[in-house]
Amino acid sequence: MSARLNIAGRLGKAAMESYITPTACLLISLFGLVALFVTPREENPQIDVPAANVFVRMPGATPEEALNLIVRPLEAVLQEMTGVDHTYGMASDSLGMVTVQFEVGEDKEASLVKLYDRLMHNLDRIPPGASQPMVKPSDVDDVPILTLTFSSDHYSDLELKRLVDRVKEQLSPLPDVTVVDVIGGRDRQITIDIDPERLASYGIPLGQLYRSLSAGNFAVPVGDAVDDNRVKLIRLDGALRNAREVGRIVVAVQGESPVYLRDVADIHDDGGEILRVHRVGFGPASGMAMPAAEPEQVAVTLTLAKKRGSNAVVVARRVLDKLETLKGDLIPDDIRVTVSRNSGERADDAVNLLIEHLAIAIVSVVVILLLFLGWREAAIVTLNIPLILFIVLAIGYVAGQTINRITLFALILALGLLVDDAIVVIENIHRHLEKGAATLREKGAAIITATNETGKPTIIATIAVILAFIPMAFVTGMMGPYMGPIPFNTPVAMLASLVIAYMFTPWIARRWLPCRLPAPTLEEAGEREADWLHRLYSRLARPLLERHWPRRAFWAVLGLAFVVVMWQPAWQFLRPEGMGGPLTPGTVELKMLPKGNKNTFNITIDMPEGTPLEITDAVTRDIGDILRRHPMVTDYETHVGMAGPVDFNGMLRGATIKQGPHVAEIRVNLVKKQERHIKSAEIVLQLRDWLRPVYERWPGANIKLVEDPPGPPVRATLLGEIYGPDYETARRLARTVRAAFETTWDVVDVDDSVTDDQVQYRVTVDKEKAAAAGVDTASVANLLRDFVAGFDIGKLDVVYERHPVAIHIQLPRRFRIAPRDLDRLFVTTADGTQIPVASIARVEKVPVPKPIFTKDGFPVVYVTGEPATGSQVYPLLDLDRRLDGQELLPGVTLHTGGLGFLRPVADPAFQYQMMWDGEMRLTLDVFRDLGAAFIVAIVLIYLLLVAYYGSFLLPVIVMGAIPLTMIGIFPGHLITHQPFTATSMIGMIALAGIVVRNSVLLIDFILENRARGVDLKTAVLEAGAVRTRPILLTALAVIAGTSIMISDPVFGGLGVSMAFGTFASTLLTLFVIPLIYYLWQRRRGDAPATGASCTT
Question: Where are any strands of DSSP class E within 790-891?
Fold first, then answer.
């Protein structure tokens, strides 16, 4: 027998008689359990996109000068590096900034080394007057996993900041905690408010006061001396230590009486002017009752990131446990600590929920096995499942994988597939034992024979499924690592299932399954029509083989069904009224990924530049009043004048560099999704309506409700990039395009990169008059700075403070000189006299220079928008149709592009172009890559079948079941109200391997019957009837295993494709494939079959 055994038979025989098999199973279980608990957990796979911001300051440079002297040369230098995906530049007043974004998957450390090396190599090209480049890496590892918001009614932001700094010292040393930052609050500062009237009454020049203050705050070692046979240091200590000492500095002497600083200035020990505001508010879901007079509390937030590769769940739990020990001791009881972000908890909840789903899917598969097989056979197949999953987890741990949502979805997807091999093996063992195995020796021989018979077709079918997944590993861009766990874990699970099926199944079958006396086989029962499934199949299939009109009707219905289902996604593009507008009933929506159901979202407020902090704060308070009324809001954190704690989405959208009194951000936290009945997207939609009064009250406010993306983030969902030979014309075009965005159905949060018109005062010094008076331009500039902004003149020498206590000197607001009042401002000349600045300078109002943006070296203007409810595909294509080739300005025609599968290159030298980017570009890239993966998978499967069957045409028949999946996929999406997404496409690719597996089982049995001399029609009918049971059983296992995914907001499309596609293709494959083979062989004259055959 051993000479006739294939690899499956030999493996089964060796394992069945070996003690290594149970030992290996025990070791696999132990290793898998360890991997389950020690593998790091995170919500989504980490996407490595190395990036850095490079800043170069050039005081006095206009945006045009910064563009030509800094940004363009810098972009050119950075684009010389390998691995650079894009460069983004911004040239503004006195500043040039370039963001370099490397390709996904590039090594972070190596990329930064290349960046520094390239910058250092080109330092000689820095223009005169410009600073050296300052590099700030943008690292996804620095995104906080935990944010703790400290708030109170009784403490000021200064006191809260001091407390949080001390909490930071306690939490920073914890293992695996890395970047720890404090957001909000003011540091202690000594503020000197100079009174110009009192200063003038004493006749003290401002410069004399500065010199006295600087000279009165001095401490330095002055040398050493030998005393008592020892060298001792001598130190001059004139440092200031408190506000009282600052006030006692002598700034002048009038006669014999000293004039102290406190005589001419008011001195405050506080946090200085409020330039940023951070508060926290609580919604109805928090259960907190806040006073109506002040419904929001002053807040300071502590953010903590984790080290790369560490477990977010463990790190977050460790920090929170330490925090609990600080409460009541370092943290007073009247300070509330709100966990405003906990990525560890979120990851743990997501992973635990999917583990529950995995358990439900396993139970569903077990129930199906019990219904179709005996309890012993079902138990054997069931025991295969944990062993396979343990192998996948162990290999994933060794390979550096993490346990995340995508990993578990891959396991759920594989669940329906990984039992297929065990089902085929155990079903064949069952069939052989039914023929008779009265002794243990006969039972062992029957098990080996059954295992050997299923070897070749099962191995081929499993490889076909693996080949369907492997090309997905080559998806480019951010979706590659995001979906990476699927092409990694699923093939590993399939290979593991093959090994376990031929090692563990024979071993346990020999010990669990009883010996049996001879009984009718399934074929014999079918021949006597004693099996109901056999009879049903014969009744349905026989007319298709024997009569013309049932066969023609079958082909007609099948063709009509195929046309109808393909019409479902196509009609929205073809309907007469155009693509814009609500989705037509009965059609399937296409989009990248559906909106996720998150526990948080963000609100950004952009006021016109020049808006004071008080106005921006008033807008945020109005929004807070509305948020506090929504029953699903637990809390929200407002950040006025600054950005809040960054996340991956905000990092790619450039939120980290948003600063100034005209910007604000509100992070809104909702009731956990398990505890609410509506999705976060519906809450956001409700709040858009609730916020209409705010829009009306503050018409200049650009308020955006930014939802966390379900997958990789983009700069904007709808993003148009306008290029052209003249930048000012491109700005005007952007305004016109923005108006088109605002009138497009379902498009909200419209914005552009064109700043509002502003006016600034420009002071121009008459150099001849200034030289005649002995005054230089720098003296005038310093004087204006002192009287308008103030400056830090030193610091206190305080040991117990965590930050330097600055001594800030300024004029009170009521005395500050506006540039137009230069006649009230005096400058000291070379001979010591004072003259008004107006005598040597003039003031004029001029427009504020607007920043210039670039991308990959070309000046660009951005126009952005977001879809409120549906896909971005239809409004974008509607916009493209309305804008392409149109004369939007007199003599200016706009051409659109960027909707091909290949990334376009802008050519703005002679025409104005708008290239589409954002989620549409990501969608095109992903569907291009997945489409290519689908084609490659089909080609690989075809080559595999050609090698197996030794025929070029027979594999085509076997693969004829692949298009049948469409008949189930699109109606399934329509029934479940799911859009067809990238995850749906992944399911469609996976189905290519699954349906080919079924076809292989059918064709192999037909070939076996033909080889035994059975006539063509009987061979086809017998193969279909006998293989119906295992095919239906494996199909039901796939449906049961993947149906649990349908309820997921992101991976529901994958579940729909797998469940409905498997259902439709399985039913149709049982008839279509045998029928096509029958007609092909009959056309050939019923020639004997050749090629590989299977003996099962």
Answer: 791-795, 806-810, 826-828, 834-836, 841-847, 852-855, 858-867, 886-889
Residue ranges, comma separated, of all CATH 1.20.1640.10 domains in the chain are 1-38+374-517, 547-587+951-1085
Cβ–Cβ under 8 Å, residues 394 and 24: no
Q: Does residue 411 contact residue 389 with C-beta atoms inside 8 Å?
A: yes
Strand 912-918 and strand 892-897: the pairing is parallel
User: What is the pairing mode between strands 189-194 and 806-810?
Assistant: parallel
Q: Cα(450)–Cα(434) distance, rounded to whole angstroms?
A: 12
CB atoms within 10 A of CB 654: 15
What global pTM score does this model have? 0.86
Check: CB of residue 970 under 8 Å from CB of residue 568: yes
The neighbour count for residue 11, using CB atoms within 10 Å, is 20
CA dihedral (265, 268, 269, 273) positive or negative: negative
Domain covering 1-38+374-517 in this structure, CATH number: 1.20.1640.10
Question: In which residue ranges of the chain is CATH 3.30.70.1430 found?
Answer: 41-138, 142-187+274-346+595-709
Q: Helices 7-16 & 485-512, crossing angle to 10 degrees? A: 60
CATH topology of domain 142-187+274-346+595-709: Alpha-Beta Plaits (3.30.70)
Q: Whose structure tokens read 């903590």?
A: 304
Q: Which residues pair with 56 in a beta bridge?
A: 96
547-587+951-1085: which CATH topology?
Answer: Multidrug efflux transporter AcrB transmembrane fold (1.20.1640)
Write the pLDDT tens digit of every residue in 237-249: 888 888 898 899 9
How do residues 678-728 score in pLDDT, each as one tens digit?
999 999 999 999 999 999 999 989 999 998 888 788 888 999 999 999 999
Backbone phi, then psi, for 32, in 5-degree steps? Answer: -65, -40
| Cα angle for residues 434, 439, 440 (degrees, 5° grid) | 100
DSSP per-residue string spanning 289-324:
---SS--EEEEEEEEEEE-TTS-HHHHHHHHHHHHH
Query: C-alpha 677: how far from its chain's center?
Result: 25
Count the residues in the chain: 1096
- Token pair of 853, please? 């943006």
All residues at 6 or more sequence positions from 947 whose CB lies less than 8 Å from its CB, including other chains: none
Q: Are 980 and 973 in contact (CB under 8 A)?
A: yes
Scanning the structure block, which residue is given the tokens 């593998």?
Answer: 39
Name the CATH superfamily, with its identifier, for domain 41-138. Multidrug efflux transporter AcrB pore domain (3.30.70.1430)
Give the span between the Cα atoms of 663 and 277, in whole angstroms.
11
pLDDT at 667: 95
- Type of residue found at 466: I
| Nearest Cα to Cα of residue 79 among 667, 801, 640, 855 | 855
d(CA 369, CA 355): 21
DSSP string for residues in 332-382: -TTSEEEEEEEHHHHHHHHHHHHHHHHHHHHHHHHHHHHHHS-HHHHHHHH
Tokens of 1016: 């063509």
**Chain segment 161-181, per-residue pLDDT in tens:** 999 999 999 999 999 998 889
Cβ contacts of 891 within 8 Å, gap of 6 or more: none
